[in-house]
């Protein structure tokens, strides 16, 4: 069975947004801006409805699509979202402003690897969403996981990276080989983080959900 066909079949059941959000998504996809796949986004929204997080940190804003969708899933969480590309950041700010969500979504311009001291003042976070430079996933996880509330969850997107994590050493393209290796290393590393209960999902381009164990969950 063709996995991409199945993925499109599942995505066909995702309800449509209002016109302004549909426009943001459509334009982003047409321009090749990496935004979350529809079925993955729908799952993340449902996860937020289940978990009811009050504060969310997103690493990788792009044009603000996922931050907007996360907030609108239940209109509760405050979302702090980091973007290092200034043009993307400006566009995200405009999209947030146009939807009148300035008091709920706070885009931050800068390199997530250098903003920990600024971001920690807004924590702790009930949910952290990592969807930025793939070679930096482990760094971001290590850097920001101390800001996760007890029992909170870290969601890592694109963990399958278009299938490149499977036998990356046999890829001919050097960049693809490097990225495939890096994401595979991250997945292997994440599976060994015993402070977290992690489940790996093949939904979309792959998601990892890592829930921080509470003190009572640890056993000798």
Automatic annotation (TrEMBL):
Q: Which domain of life is it from?
A: Bacteria
EC class, as a word, reads: transferase
Q: Which GO terms describe its molecular function?
A: magnesium ion binding; O-methyltransferase activity; S-adenosylmethionine-dependent methyltransferase activity; tRNA (uridine) methyltransferase activity
**Keywords for this entry?**
Magnesium, Metal-binding, Methyltransferase, S-adenosyl-L-methionine, Transferase, tRNA processing
- Identify the stretch annotated as signal peptide in this record: none
Which residues hold S-adenosyl-L-methionine? 36, 66, 83, 111-112, 131
Q: Which Pfam families match?
A: Methyltransf_3
What are the GO BP annotations of this UniProt entry? tRNA methylation
Keyword Transferase assigned: yes
| Positions bound to Mg(2+) | 131, 157-158
Keyword Ribonucleoprotein attached: no
State the EC number(s).
2.1.1.-
Q: Which reaction does it catalyse?
A: 5-hydroxyuridine(34) in tRNA + S-adenosyl-L-methionine = 5-methoxyuridine(34) in tRNA + S-adenosyl-L-homocysteine + H(+)
Question: PANTHER family given for it?
Answer: CAFFEOYL-COA O-METHYLTRANSFERASE 3-RELATED (PTHR10509:SF14), O-METHYLTRANSFERASE-RELATED (PTHR10509)
Subunit structure as annotated in this protein's UniProt entry: Homodimer.
Family according to the record: Belongs to the class I-like SAM-binding methyltransferase superfamily. Cation-dependent O-methyltransferase family.
Q: What function does the entry list?
A: Catalyzes the methylation of 5-hydroxyuridine (ho5U) to form 5-methoxyuridine (mo5U) at position 34 in tRNAs.
- What is the protein name given in its UniProt record? tRNA 5-hydroxyuridine methyltransferase
Q: Which organism is it from?
A: Terrilactibacillus tamarindi
